[in-house]
Design brief:
Layout: H1 9-18, H2 20-36, E1 42-44, H3 52-65, E2 70-72, E3 78-81, H4 86-96
Antiparallel strand pairs: 1-3, 2-3
């Protein structure tokens, strides 16, 4: 699934043109979902067959825009919500590294 990652500015621009409606209709829901995930824990992506390009591309766009802070696994089958800022990171450290 790594082939669906948007790795260049041109790929992002082209994806945004092709999927403008998807971005408009689903960005807010994906932002809420990603921000509800446990911090620094891997979450499996369960993407319906045939929607891999659109979902991974959507998440890439949200990341590039700074709307979410995530890391994809090496295979793009999971994501991890990363701290949005230093304060969130420090809070996570305080809770998990005692």
């Amino acid at each position: 699934m790594t082939r669906y990652l948007l790795r260049t500015d041109l790929a992002i621009i082209e994806f945004r043109k092709r999927h403008a409606k998807l971005l408009r209709d689903y960005s807010a829901a994906y932002i809420r979902w990603i921000n509800s995930l446990p911090l620094m824990e891997w979450t499996r992506l369960t993407i319906p067959k045939g929607h891999e390009e659109s979902i991974i591309g959507l998440i890439c766009c949200l990341y590039v825009e700074g709307a979410v802070n995530i890391t994809f696994s090496n295979t793009c089958t999971s994501i991890r919500r990363d701290p949005a800022n230093e304060e969130e990171y420090q809070q996570w450290l305080d809770e998990h590294c005692k």
